[in-house]
Amino acid sequence: MKIVFYTAGGTIDKIYFDAKSDYQVGDPILDEILAEGNVTFAHESKTIMKKDSLDLTDHDRELIYRTIDEETNRLIILTHGTDTMVATARHLQSIRGKVVVLTGSMAPARFKSSDAPFNIACAVGAVQTLGEGVYICMNGRIFTPEEAVKNVDRGVFEKLPQR
Amino acid sequence: MKIVFYTAGGTIDKIYFDAKSDYQVGDPILDEILAEGNVTFAHESKTIMKKDSLDLTDHDRELIYRTIDEETNRLIILTHGTDTMVATARHLQSIRGKVVVLTGSMAPARFKSSDAPFNIACAVGAVQTLGEGVYICMNGRIFTPEEAVKNVDRGVFEKLPQR
Amino acid sequence: MKIVFYTAGGTIDKIYFDAKSDYQVGDPILDEILAEGNVTFAHESKTIMKKDSLDLTDHDRELIYRTIDEETNRLIILTHGTDTMVATARHLQSIRGKVVVLTGSMAPARFKSSDAPFNIACAVGAVQTLGEGVYICMNGRIFTPEEAVKNVDRGVFEKLPQR
Amino acid sequence: MKIVFYTAGGTIDKIYFDAKSDYQVGDPILDEILAEGNVTFAHESKTIMKKDSLDLTDHDRELIYRTIDEETNRLIILTHGTDTMVATARHLQSIRGKVVVLTGSMAPARFKSSDAPFNIACAVGAVQTLGEGVYICMNGRIFTPEEAVKNVDRGVFEKLPQR
Questions:
Q1: Percent of the residues in chain D that have a pLDDT greater than 70, as a whole number
Q2: Do chains C and B touch (3 or more CB pairs under 8 A)?
Q3: Which residues from B are below 8 Å from A when comparing CB atoms?
Q4: What tens digit of pLDDT does each residue of A3-52 get?
Q5: pLDDT confidence of C163, banded at 50, 70, 90?
Q6: Which residues of A touch C31 (CB under 8 A)?
Q7: Inter-chain contact A121–B137, Cβ cutoff 8 Å?
Q8: pLDDT surpassing 90 at residue D63
Q9: Which residue in A113, A121, A157 is closest to B121 by CB distance?
Q10: For B125, which of A34, A41, A124 is closest by C-beta distance?
Q11: Listing from the earlier edge strand, what are the strands of the sheet with C133-138?
């Protein structure tokens, strides 16, 4: 089993930049999370872009689509900002032959307390057991793109009320 | 979706007992892990026993079997010591109508660095997407009881070499 | 013994603001640090301002001066941005009858890895054992305002080379 | 400034040993604490013994005495179990020409939540500002050996009621 992790940015990757200070945060927070989980599956991580999901354009979504569509590995986890995660998930739905799980976090992964490690690990459990398709993994739950919605007030993902 | 967490003990729950000192660790480490993951699914946690898995007897395994067999909730995560996790998983295999995922950790969940949060979260992702059956979730991978073995030297779970 | 903590802002208090997301970080990171240290001394915390130390004006420094000068408690820890911590410390030097220890951090206190808890605790140890005066506590060392300088390249406080 | 850290054991160093499992914890937790504090002072750490402080004998205390008495560095922090920390501190009081600060923790330093980092950092702040003598640094406070007592019920160090 191999999982390829793509990132499109979002809060999970947020770091704090201080213009004057020389403080800088390195990248490998995903590596730290996987190392703490003592994982033994093959994995690779690639950056598509580093954007607030509110700033993602149609062009950006098209780039995400093509990148994942052309990826040869079957199991893919895409970290993404939460605000437009559902929109991107819907955009990716026509991708065939892959299991794509989108996840992210409400608090930056570098924070002492963050939902990022849980979400990444939950997505790892889901991506290898789900069938072909596109899914959202947030708040310990797996959603299809059609049924998911971010409840901005509560800061959680929910199922759309059924009509 | 509701997940019922059972514990049979093991390293994941290990706490440090000091005969004389009044230092005591409370129970709700699972609650902390789920709270950090900001989970929104219904869940409940129950203790079957608190034992080193090397000390589990046939009688203990029978108690675990009956407890889970009689549980009415479909999705079950059982935390268990790693040393005999495979034996217990095999013992539970005849349980029908449920998804049972066994997990645990090499380092106690209370340690600053532990594989426990990752394993719990990975099991949460897996239990809701797997079909009926008994599984082991360790090292970011999902194993069936027949194929799993703990490599004691490396401290990880592996697939048995196929004959 | 009672310690009054004042904050003038700086990286130690930095939080991540996301315009659209409802993610918000509460204040009591100092309380968390002190609770983890299981401290039993009386303490109180007050905010003078919340500014990057590069943005502090003469007027701000005057406000800090007056606030601390008028404080009736003898032991004071002032958290402050590192970039102009030395300037503020020098500005406060004419305050009499108090022990004032300035500290801060290179990484926000909310980060998983941060020098903030160490610096706060080190300042707590120092403020109750130092004599009247103004001091800087950074990198596990205690400096007088005259001898301290921030080495921006190395991201640490050092003693000025003696002439 | 140089600080020499000695350890005599105690909860701060406690690790969890699992007879059968190959799980083992390395030593350098003090190094991690100092690294997180981004300290720049010279330091060295040495082990005198690794014992529960309740098991320390007169012979052990004599060994601790001699080791510290013969140490050439002036600033010394001794980590020690809390249960008999006061007894050892009193035993060391005749040592001359040094500043010796005893500290420890109620929860092992490897725990996710532990008073160890705070106590170490507080001792670092105190040892370089105190005059010659032997002190206890616990709960964010500095005690002389004569006035200190561990309140076992509350799990904190206090001043003995004055007669």
A1: 91
A2: no
A3: 1, 33-34, 36-41, 106, 113-115, 117-130, 137, 139-142, 155-158
A4: 999 999 888 887 654 444 444 444 568 999 999 999 999 999 999 998 88
A5: low
A6: none
A7: no
A8: yes
A9: A121
A10: A124
A11: C42-51, C2-9, C75-79, C99-103, C133-138, C141-143
- D1-16: b or e for each residue (b if 16 or more CB lie within 10 Å)? eebbbbbbbbbbbbbb
- CA of C102: how far to CAs of A22, C119, C123, in Å? 20, 10, 8
pLDDT of D90 above 80: yes
Whether residue C4 has pLDDT greater than 70: yes
ipTM here: 0.93
Three-class SS string for chain A?
CEEEEEEEECHHHCCCCCCCCCCCCCCCHHHHHHHHCCCCCEEEEEEEEEECHHHCCHHHHHHHHHHHHHCCCCEEEEECCCCCHHHHHHHCCCCCCCEEEEECCCCCCCECCCCHHHHHHHHHHHHCCCCCEEEEEECCEEECCCCEEEECCCCEEEECCCC
The yes-or-no verdict on residue B76 having pLDDT over 70 is: yes
**Nearest neighbour of B20 by CB, restricted to D22, D83, D112:** D83
Question: Cβ–Cβ of D52/B108 closer than 8 Å?
Answer: no
Closest CA to A6 of A44, A58, A62, A56: A44
Nearest residue of chain D to residue B12 (CA atoms): D16
The yes-or-no verdict on residue D84 having pLDDT over 50 is: yes
C-alpha angle A115-A113-B16 in degrees, rounded to nearest 5: 110
- Which residue of D lies nearest to B81 if distances are taken between CA atoms? D21
Which residues on A lie below 8 Å from B41 (Cβ)? 139-141
Give residue B59's Cα distance to chain centre.
19
A71-120 pLDDT, tens per residue?
A: 999 999 999 999 999 999 999 999 999 999 999 999 888 888 899 999 99
B51 pLDDT tier (thresholds 50, 70, 90): confident
Interface residues of chain C, partner chain D, Cβ below 8 Å: 1, 33-34, 36-41, 106, 113-115, 117-130, 137, 139-142, 155-158
Q: Which of C123, C106, C103, C124 is nearest to C115 (CA)?
A: C106
Q: Are D18 and B11 in contact (CB under 8 A)?
A: yes
| CB atoms closer than 10 angstroms to residue C112 | 16
Are the Cβ atoms of C23 and A110 closer than 8 angstroms? no
Q: Which residues of D touch C116 (CB under 8 A)?
A: none
Mean pLDDT, range C81-105, rounded to an integer: 97
Consecutive H or E run containing B43: strand B42-51
Token duo for residue B154: 């490396």
Contact B11 D20 (CB under 8 A): no
